[in-house]
Write a structure and sequence with these properties.
The chain has 319 residues and is mostly helical. It folds into 2 domains: 95 residues, 3-Layer(aba) Sandwich (Glutaredoxin); 158 residues, Glutathione S-transferase Yfyf (Class Pi), Chain A, domain 2 (Up-down Bundle), CATH 1.20.1050. 57% of the residues lie in helices and 4% in strands. It has 12 helices and 4 strands, in the order αααβαβββαααααααα. Helix 6 runs antiparallel to helix 8 and helix 6 packs antiparallel against helix 9.
């Protein structure tokens, strides 16, 4: 009798499930093979797929690099007018150190990096193919990069991470965030500069919509021990960049126009600062109306020693 009651109960539940399913199908109809669910459709409407133009495969470039006796430097652009500060900084460092003729430069698309990390980096051809212990991909601003630069050019000022990383952080976080915000989030700059250099069209609410979140996360991990959520605005980002430039200006004043204490010529920090100041002043960044200078341009111009230090690096490396 108990078994019969349990079976009857199970049959009732199955009947209810069947009726619910039939009712739902009658109301909305089954999703066909070609019908995209509304949630997925909204996702791809907001973040459409883009097919990049064909380009030489990075793997082929690595095979070519294997034949090179010289190291190969992969970066976003080999031009002075570049929107990619890290590539500009590395290229400028090679020019300042006199090593530009000792390496081969390859400008490659950032979406198809042949290495494990982002641009820029050095790829070393293995002189002895059996020696697998040699580090072959040397990332920019890694300990291996500074060691390699010091070995290749002993007379060039060596970066002291222990003493100078706080200065680098001012540039690579506060100034970087303001630069990225001005370049991507102010629509006239995005349309006239980013789309022109990268070569593809992103809708107003796609890649640009992610930037506030990405900047907030970067700022959060860089500065917040508790990793608390906080909303970053353009105003706060630009205010932080002004504070950073104020500190750098004071340092340049105290150390005779250089950021690294005890050196007389521009080194890693100066090249890094230049890689942001030059594009800020020369890319033609404008405000939201498109009629005046961007606020970040005005902030930089309020710091004459920083502008002067950037011009000095440009003259030494690019003239």
């Amino acid at each position: 009798m108990a078994q019969r009651n349990a079976k009857t109960t199970e049959e009732k539940h199955e009947s209810i499930r069947f009726e619910s399913k039939s009712s739902a199908e009658q109301q909305s109809g089954p999703i066909g093979f070609r019908k995209v669910p509304p949630v997925i459709k909204r996702l791809f409407d907001t973040f459409p797929l883009y097919t990049y133009e064909s380009a030489p495969l990075p793997a082929n470039r690595l095979l070519d690099s294997e034949k090179e006796e010289k190291p190969t430097v992969f970066l976003y652009s080999t031009e002075l007018r570049s929107i990619h500060p890290e590539s500009l900084a590395m290229l400028t460092l090679f020019k300042l150190s006199g090593l530009q003729d000792s390496v081969s430069f390859v400008s490659a698309s950032p979406h198809s990096s042949p290495g494990d990390g982002p641009f820029p980096y050095i790829f070393l051809s293995r002189q002895n193919p059996s020696d697998a212990s040699v580090e072959r991909f040397i990332a920019f601003n890694s300990q291996s990069f500074h060691s390699w630069l010091s070995t290749e050019c002993p007379g060039f000022p060596r970066y002291n991470a222990f003493l100078e990383s706080p200065i680098f952080t001012l540039i690579s976080i506060s100034l970087h965030d303001a630069y990225i915000y001005t370049l991507f989030m102010i629509l006239p700059n995005f349309k006239s500069i980013v789309q022109d250099q990268i070569g593809f069209n992103i809708g107003r609410n796609t890649g640009r919509g992610l930037l506030p979140y990405l900047l907030a996360r970067q700022e959060q991990f860089a500065h917040s021990k508790a990793f608390e959520r906080r909303k970053l605005s353009g105003k706060s980002i630009l205010a932080a960049s002004r504070d950073a430039l104020d500190a750098l200006e004071s340092l340049l004043k105290a150390q005779n126009g250089v950021l690294s204490n005890g050196i007389s010529q521009p080194g890693f920090l100066e090249a890094t600062l230049f890689s942001y100041i030059y594009p800020i002043l020369h890319l033609g960044l404008v405000d939201a109306s498109g009629t005046g200078d961007a606020e970040l341009v005005s902030i930089v111009k309020d710091h004459p020693l920083i502008v002067e230090a950037s011009e000095k690096v440009c003259s030494l490396a690019w003239s």
